[in-house]
Amino acid sequence: MKKVLVTGGTVFVSRYVAQYYVNKGYDVYVLNRNNRKQVNGVILIEADRHLIGEKLRDYHFDIVFDITSYTKADVNTLLDALGSFNDYIMISSSAVYPEYEPQPFKENTILGANKFWGQYGTNKIEAEEALHERVPNAYILRPPYLYGQMNNVYREAFVFECAMRGRKFYLPKNGEMKLQFFHVNDLCKFMDIIVEKKPDEHIFNVGNKETVSVRDWVELCYKVMGKPAEYECVFDDIEQRNYFSFYNYEYYLDVSKQEKLMSVIKHMEEGLKEAYEWYKDNSGEVVRKGYIEYIDEILKK
């Protein structure tokens, strides 16, 4: 059975990845500081990824799933510490694409600073470059917004909370802004395909082929809870991140290369239902923001 390393392993994507491969029967090692609850069945290597020392030196991993590299230093420190491995997959971000380039963004779109993502995006660019300089056969995945079980980011959870409270939902303008998502389970399935097929391409945009308007997305979040959505539209010149989970930034990834390898994607309604089932029992794990308080204090006046 395969032996894999997951960087992180305790929060959202890295946690889900660790659980996914435990469920497949892999020997799953996680690298983290042991500050949070571990997934049942993993083998913990307790260390700060910047202070690993010799803790990885004697291991051979079939796959390294690098979920938590955000900078060039993150990549280099891990590679310096590793013993040997076969495959390396890093989760990067769509934030590497500057907002002014033509859309949909393709894998060969010129990378650069994006005014909405700032240093996060430029750091990811440097991390990608560092990885491919040292491990040319590594795979890099660039997702849009990820969602699903274990999501501690206040996105779908925000809508679920509004629905649970029986609140109207405050939409930016008419709610026509489009978003692109990818379920974390589909991310894992695509990584399985990469390891199995070893495609010649080494950088992939990943995501649902279709975008969804924020109005339709909110509608689906309410629907999976069996509740009707009612809206208030905000047309005032107000920074929408004060009351909504996403920047006023619409972008779209070309995922045709992914689609050639994996054509079946989880339907968003099914994915949001799974996310809600997790949220019902784990709402305390979500990093809540003050959107509702802002709406009540500012927008309702």
What would you say this structure looks like, in words?
The protein has 301 residues and is an alpha/beta fold. The chain folds into 2 domains: 3-147 and 182-205, Rossmann fold (3-Layer(aba) Sandwich); 156-179 and 209-251 and 258-299, UDP-galactose 4-epimerase, domain 1 (Alpha-Beta Complex), CATH 3.90.25.10. Helix content is 34%, strand content 18%. It has helices spanning 12-23, 72-81, 119-134, 156-164, 184-197, 214-223, 256-261, 268-282, 291-299, and strands spanning 3-7, 27-32, 43-46, 60-66, 84-91, 139-142, 145-147, 169-172, 178-179, 181-183, 203-205, 212-213, 231-234. α1 (12-23) links the parallel β1 (3-7) and β2 (27-32). The chain is globular and about 60 Å long. The termini are far apart. The mean pLDDT is 97.
SSE layout:
Blueprint: E1 3-7, H1 12-23, E2 27-32, E3 43-46, E4 60-66, H2 72-81, E5 84-91, H3 119-134, E6 139-142, E7 145-147, H4 156-164, E8 169-172, E9 178-179, E10 181-183, H5 184-197, E11 203-205, E12 212-213, H6 214-223, E13 231-234, H7 256-261, H8 268-282, H9 291-299
Parallel strand pairs: 1-2, 1-4, 2-3, 4-5, 5-6, 6-11, 7-10, 8-13
Antiparallel strand pairs: 9-12
